[in-house]
Amino acid sequence: MKDKTLKNMSTKDLPDDCYVKHNVTYQTLSWLMIGEFTLGLPLNLSVLFIFIFRFKFWKNKSILLFNIVVADFLLVICLPVRIHNYQHGLRRSGENAVCKTMLFMLFLNRGASITFLITLTIDRYFNVVHLGRRNFVRRLKKSPAFSIIIWVLLLPLTVPTMLQKEGCCNSLGRVATPEEKVVDTLREVVFFSQILVPFVILVYCTVRIVQRLRKKTVGEKAKLRRAVWLVMSVAVVFSICFLPCAVGRAVLMWVRLMKYEEAEVSVVQVYDSLMVLSYTDCLLDPLVYCLSNTGFKNAYVSTFCPTFLQKRLKKNDVSSTTGTNTATTSAARKISLPLTNKGNALLPKV
């Protein structure tokens, strides 16, 4: 009885839209997040261990990849709070400080993941499409100061979220003061620009990279297909983790502005479900970006995989790297295009 009273005291000031309307949906979402947390925590901890103690990312110039893993880890440690809220019929915590901390972490994680992802994509674009030209991104991605600057610049983007006084979702479209409308508008601008602008850059770079790779007629087709898969996987992960929640957010805003209160209940559930889908980013990033780096993959396999699996994976690597160097003629001169990650022009550099 005492616990129930304390719970009511902490949630009594929440607006009506903070309480779930269909408990079954949010119970299901909570179990999905439990699965993401159960898989994501050991995966990201093991990847961080390899990066720091085995791969030594600062020596292998994989600083951007390390920052992506850090951003994913920040997301993973936020999931238990979301799980607790959903299982107790709430869309956010009844404690305002906890709620704002969660929003801060989620906004910061999404911004960092997208920024470092796009930086790597631009680097791959120059390595493949503009081979031989000066690549300014290559120097930046090797600099720890550049990564620190990105994290610092992302902090102001979380300010509109911190200014939110109440409400579970953004209140744009609801009754609000002029000051609150300005804050809500800024929040929406940050949210959509954080996803849509990088998505346009990602699509352009990916299309150009794929076109460049398909023009190459020299070399084994299987390796060319693998190179195309690696660059397209970046766009696929982005489309799965970030684009759907942006579409869901846009639909939710439209429904609120049009005052479709009955439809809003269903749209909110869809939007929250898409946000849970976006949390799979913490699972896909280590698989797609980290394990595509040959040096990191070898360190990870030798540390965590059993002996028989290590031999099998090494056998596959040997067979896939046979005939690694091919030559192509461009502008009356020959350029060596190794198909492994070392000095690779075909496979994306990480």
TrEMBL record:
Domain G-protein coupled receptors family 1 profile: residue ranges: 43-289
One function term, GO molecular function aspect: G protein-coupled receptor activity
Localisation per UniProt entry: Membrane
Membrane topology listed for this record: Multi-pass membrane protein
Cellular component terms per the entry's GO annotation: membrane
Family matches, as SUPFAM superfamilies: Family A G protein-coupled receptor-like
Residue ranges crossing the lipid bilayer per the database entry: 29-52, 64-83, 103-122, 143-163, 189-207, 228-255
InterPro entries assigned to the protein according to its UniProt record, in alphabetical order: GPCR_Rhodpsn, GPCR_Rhodpsn_7TM, HCARs
Source domain of life: Eukaryota
Keywords: G-protein coupled receptor, Membrane, Receptor, Transducer, Transmembrane, Transmembrane helix
Protein family according to the UniProt entry: Belongs to the G-protein coupled receptor 1 family.
Protein's name in the database: G-protein coupled receptors family 1 profile domain-containing protein
Species annotation: Pleuronectes platessa (European plaice)
